[in-house]
Structure formats: C-alpha cells, structure tokens
Specification:
153 residues, eight-stranded antiparallel β-sheet
Length: 153
C-alpha cells in the first residue's frame, strides 16, 4: 500500500487526480457521522447527498473502509456523469470535511477500495498493484511512501 506524502501538492492537483481516479473506478464512497445533525450541515453538504442519492448502491456488496470512529456511516454510489460532476464541484481534497461536504472520499475498482482520502488527517492511501496508476500519479507529481495498514484502507 502507498501513502501519498505530498498532500498539499495533491490538493492543488485535485481535478487531475480525481479524473485519474474516475478512469480506474466504477463506484465511490464517502461518509457521514451520526452525531452531525442537519442544522450543523452547510447547504453544500445537503446538496451533495441529494444529488448522489439516486445512485446509491448496496454498500454491503463492497469492501468497507476501515472506520476510525464508531459513528461513521459509509454509503457507496455509482460513478456516472452526475456523480462525477458533483465530486469535481467539491474542488479540493480539503473540502471533504464534515459539515461542508461528506468526509473520506474513496474510490472502488471491482468493489475493492483502491483510493482513500482522510481529509482531517491530510492522508491519501493508494492500494493497487496496477503500476500504470502509480506511474500516472507520479507523472502528475504525486509522491509516495510504502505504508502497511493491515491490508485495509
């Protein structure tokens, strides 16, 4: 597994990295927190979920992200022109922050997680054996270091 080591740079390259992720993914996930009530959510948060809701999938058919808090709820959605547009509108990895947008954007290939961002920690994990993906990320300027997280991201 790889840990991206230049989060600030990647944040500036958000659209390029996200478009690359789209090319290798069929689904995405993000999380909400049970303790976050609607009154505490920005309109951007509510609008995002409203736009992607029609494309929700059965999350139990997918590898579940590792939780770092019990109140996390991950939902899985199909990637299509509508959902891709909403993801690109977020505009920054840093914007995936509870209250403004859902947290922990992640992407699936064949129902397995291969890309995961944990914004509040400024972490992006890549779990793939596809060297083409790693080469394309390197060409964008992404730096990696090896990281072992018991196999799950």
């Amino acid at each position: 597994m790889k840990l991206i080591s230049n989060f600030d740079y990647c944040d500036k390259k958000y659209n390029e990295i996200i478009n690359l992720a789209f090319n290798y993914s069929e689904h995405f996930t993000c999380c909400s927190f049970k303790y976050l009530h609607n009154k505490d959510k920005e309109q951007s948060y509510l609008d995002f979920y409203k736009a992607v809701a029609p494309f929700e999938c059965d999350k139990f058919l997918f590898e579940q992200p590792k939780q770092y808090e019990k109140s996390q709820n991950f939902n899985v959605y199909s990637l299509n022109e509508n959902t891709k547009s909403k993801i690109l509108e977020v505009g920054s990895f840093r914007n995936w922050w509870a209250g403004y947008y859902p947290e922990d954007l992640a992407f699936y290939h064949n129902k397995k997680l291969w890309f995961r961002c944990i914004t509040h920690e400024e972490l992006i994990y890549i779990k793939t054996t596809n060297n083409k993906i790693l080469d394309e990320l390197s060409n964008i300027g992404v730096s990696f270091k090896n990281y072992d997280l018991d196999g799950r991201i």
